[in-house]
Amino acid sequence: MDQLTKDRWDRAARSFDLMAGYGPEKRWAPYKQEFFERMGEGRVLFLAVGTGLDIRFFPPGRKLVGIDISDKMLDVARPRLEAYDGEIDVRVMDVHEMPFPDDEFDQVFTSCTFCSVPNPVKGLQALHRVLKPGGELHMFEHTGSSYYPFRMMMDLMTPLLRARGTEMNRNTVANVEAAGFELREVKHVFLDVVKTIHATA
Amino acid sequence: METRLYFILGDVLANVAVGAVVGIACAAAFSPGWNMIIAMFVGMAIGMVISLPTLLGFVALFGAMEVMLPAMTTGMLTGMVVSMSATMGDLAFGPAAVLGIKSGLGVLVAIYLINILIKRRAPKWTN
Predict the structure, then answer these.
(1) Residue A44, SS3 per DSSP
(2) Does B108 touch chain A (CB under 8 A)?
(3) Could you say which of A24, A28, A191 has the minimum Cβ distance to residue B69?
(4) Residue B11 belongs to a domain
(5) By C-alpha distance, which of A64, A73, A83 is closest to A15?
(6) What percent of chain A has pLDDT over 90?
(7) Would an 8 Å CB–CB cutoff place B65 in contact with chain A?
(8) Fewest CB within 10 A of the end CB: N or C in chain A?
(9) Per the structure, how many domains does chain B have?
(10) Does some domain include residue B127?
(11) Range(s) of the domain holding residue B19
């Protein structure tokens, strides 16, 4: 397990919801509601449960496996996990070292995760491995921008936020393709920075 | 386009606050003795740096990227405009703040329009 990343998120667990739990979640709520409606009834992996802010958007009655690198984040998520009207099997795990067999899941969901995965292409390749052929990857992510001045700002913010484990200028769409996925749809939520990505294995 | 009044007001408040704070800071930092071009670049950098701590509270209340990117653009533009103005003659804090607020509102309207255009376009990445 990547101990540096785990320690960062363990430290962030207590104050995470203070910055992310109200404004950003309220703003993105309609988009996330629509995004998670795509969660089907097959075997679903949710990557980076975090403090469980996204659980309220999950359709009821689903059976998921949720993973996160930080047990401290999962401790904060506990009440939200317990309140979900369905089953979430939560495990502490590094995406780079998932012990699941090949072709295990029908769908994988991520939400604001791949700004923080240390090796994004490798992480996405791991998701590709555990998805069944034709299985769906659904991502709600913030990325870098291809437009000035936003691109410059994301580039400037990246070294400032790297210590917190967040890269602001990643080209996640290209990373998804580099990991072997076939892109189906990219929808912009805000500028070309916040977006949903749908790809298949 | 954002249509919820809570977030529109939040965006306005964040950009007005960043514009005013950066305007005052740049009016204090620059005087007619400065070279205008150097002041412009230093002012842009000051504006972007100051905008980050100023907008933190707004991020928690009103959104992440939707608040950060317009407010940082406001910081950069206000830093540029106020710094250049300050090199052309003494600029009091009041007019500097007003200049920053006007810049902030202009940036916000521009980004709302740019957002509409980008969302209509096919995804683009030039890396």
Answers:
(1) strand
(2) no
(3) A191
(4) yes
(5) A73
(6) 81
(7) yes
(8) N
(9) 1
(10) no
(11) 5-120
